[in-house]
Structure formats: C-alpha cells, structure tokens
Amino acid sequence: MTTSKFVRQGFPLWLLAVLLTACTTTTVDEFRQGETGIESHEAIVILGRRQGSTYETREEFVNCVGERVSRGSGAIRVIPEKEFVDSLFPWFEPRTAPLRTSDLQALMEEQVVADKIEEYGVRYIVWVDGQTETTNRTGSISCAVGPGGGGCFGFGSWEDDANFDARVWDVSSFANVGTISTDATGQSYVPAVVVPIPLIARVEANACSSLATQLQQFVNGD
Length: 222
Known about the structure:
Helices cover about 30% and strands about 40% of the residues. By secondary structure, it is an alpha/beta fold. The two termini are about 45 Å apart.
C-alpha cells in the first residue's frame, strides 16, 4: 500500500511517520584487562549489583542475560542467580556481597564458600550493574464516552535509556579481567485515534541481547 492511498483513506501522516521511525540504537563497549577462556566443565554466575540506595539492577534483566549466554553455538553453562545466592547465604546478599576482587579473595578463605564455588565449577563471576531510565515525557491522551460511543485522542512520547555494565571476575586468579558496557536508547510513542496504539522501543531487551552476545564471546576468549 502506497503513502498516497493511506492519505486518501484518512490515515494520519504523523502516525505513519511514527510507525516508520520508532527504533532503538544500541552501543556496546568492551575493555579487556586479562586473558579469558572457559572449559566445558566450568560455569559462570551472573549477579546483579543491588547495593545502590537509589536503584537496584532488575532481576529480570540479569536472568535475561543469563538465559541468552547459555544458548547458541558458544553457549556457556550459567548458574542461576537465585540458586547461587541462596546456596551461599549470606555471603552474596546485597549488604555482604564482595565489592572488589580482594573482597572475593578474602571470602574464599571461608571453606564453605570455597567448597560451594568449586562444587558449582564457577570460573567467572559476572557483576551486572545498571538500570533503565525514562525521560522527556511529552504530550497527553484524553478519553471520553458519549451517546455515540467512546474513544481516545492525543499523542504521547518518551525516551528510554538502558545503561548496563558487566564486570567479569576470574575466580581462579581473583582478578577483574574486563568490563562490557551497553547503552540502548529509543523513543516510544502512544498515538491515540479512537484506540491508543503503543509503539514501545524495546531498549532493555536490546541491551540484554547485545550484552549477552558480547559477554559470551568475551568469556570464551573470542
């Protein structure tokens, strides 16, 4: 169907423009500080940083990264976050989790911690830190019901920015071997002509996918 036909049928040009331009831009950066590689019997655990007073890294995002890292041709065995934290209670709870690799080295002196990490075969601990922020909300939508029916009219938009870092700790050497950062931004729209039509920029999903792909390659030593 051509643009002219849309216009003849009363399809708003501004709505057509929105449909064509709603998108997400994702940037991934990698900073390597050491050699990496992983054997088939080894695993990683991906944990969310939650010590911050103003936000917490969402568990759903951490699980998303873990699920994607464990799939595909370069799949890596990932220990589920909740299972790992519960089995090592209270050492990896938000208030007691190690903040530096030196803290991890000291923690490994606890025999029960060392035994459990060896049991799981954990080679790398990946700390994910970040959040998604919504800014620049504009527009409004109003809805009404009358004798002839009801409907909504208006237009709203906002920007989403998903910014996450993943720090990779090598358990065998107690070293921070690198950091991967991803930043996904996008504009979301909700035009309403009788019925609201959400056009959501999937910034967090794109950030998860990009971070997981890069993390998988990083750990495998590609």
